[in-house]
């Protein structure tokens, strides 16, 4: 069960981080929800997001997953960055699809974390992403200044 203070910290951390995330916003990403150790972000595929085969560019699917990952791993109120990630594409995204990335914390030990992100179009899994995070030991609330 999520305590009110933990949920408030997750929400406030997301608000602060997202306010400066011009890349995610430029791609039309929207935060659907955030909670301690998890986040959901969605993005509609526009015509400027498709590749030469009329499919969503894989780098943009990875960006969506990375944004959900970032929100999830920063949800504990500590500035945290990516140490790396792997992504497996299972299906293609197409023009007009709305992709949803759901991130969830798998493990958090010391400064290191592991998060899985599933990217879906409705019920179809488009990609599976595994991100590795590293905490910088700085409270996000102080980053607001």
TrEMBL record:
InterPro entries hit by this protein: Acyl-CoA_thioesterase_PaaI, HotDog_dom_sf, PaaD, PAAI_dom, Thioestr_dom
Signal peptide (from-to): none
Claim: Chaperone is one of the keywords in the record: no
SUPFAM superfamilies membership: Thioesterase/thiol ester dehydrase-isomerase
Domain of life the protein comes from: Bacteria
Keywords: Hydrolase
Keyword Ribosomal protein: no
Ranges of residues in domain Thioesterase: 56-125
UniProt-listed PANTHER family: ACYL-COENZYME A THIOESTERASE PAAI
NCBIfam families cross-referenced by the UniProt entry: PaaD, unchar_dom_1
Protein name: Hydroxyphenylacetyl-CoA thioesterase PaaI
Organism of derivation: Mycolicibacterium komossense
């Amino acid at each position: 069960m999520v305590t009110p203070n933990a949920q408030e910290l997750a929400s406030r951390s997301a608000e602060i981080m997202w306010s400066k995330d011009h890349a995610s916003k430029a791609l039309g990403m929207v935060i659907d929800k955030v909670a301690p150790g998890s986040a959901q972000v969605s993005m509609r595929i526009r015509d400027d997001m498709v590749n030469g085969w009329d499919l969503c560019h894989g780098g943009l699917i990875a960006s969506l997953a990375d944004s959900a990952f970032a929100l999830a791993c920063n949800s504990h109120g500590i500035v945290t960055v990516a140490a790396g990630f792997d992504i497996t594409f299972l299906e293609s995204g197409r023009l007009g699809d709305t992709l949803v990335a759901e991130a969830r914390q798998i493990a958090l030990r010391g400064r290191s974390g592991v998060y899985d992100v599933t990217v879906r179009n409705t019920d179809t899994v488009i990609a599976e992403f595994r991100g590795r995070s590293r905490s910088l030991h700085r409270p996000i609330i102080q980053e607001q200044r």
